[in-house]
Write a structure and sequence with these properties.
Blueprint: H1 18-22, H2 31-46, H3 52-55, H4 59-70, H5 76-91
Length: 103
């Protein structure tokens, strides 16, 4: 899959391409749809407490996000499964793992 360019410069411990790695196991059967998933993920990451319209930089991005979420090919199970696989991979070799949440 080709890389998706975003305006978000957020970097966590995984580097600035963390979302591509986190969702690399998602198979939507359409490269364009996968690119939209990544782009929308970075938009939402930039403003997680906002609505889709607030998270996206304009109507074009927001419309793309809404179309993504209404697409029958997008299954939350695929996203959770990829996240699970990557989380398990990150935990390998550690005897002790903390899972911290604030809610």
């Amino acid at each position: 899959m080709s890389e998706v360019s975003t305006n978000v410069q957020y970097t966590d411990g995984l580097g600035d391409k963390w979302l591509e790695r986190e969702l690399k196991h998602v198979n939507l059967g359409d490269t364009r749809l996968h690119k939209r998933l990544i782009k929308t993920g970075y938009c939402i990451e930039g403003k997680v407490s906002g609505s889709i319209n607030q998270s996206c930089s304009g109507w074009k991005e927001a419309k793309g996000a809404y179309r993504l979420f209404s697409n029958e090919k997008l299954k939350d199970k695929e996203i959770y499964s990829s996240h699970y696989k990557e989380t398990m991979e990150r935990m390998k070799g550690n005897q002790f793992v903390l899972s911290v949440q604030d809610t």
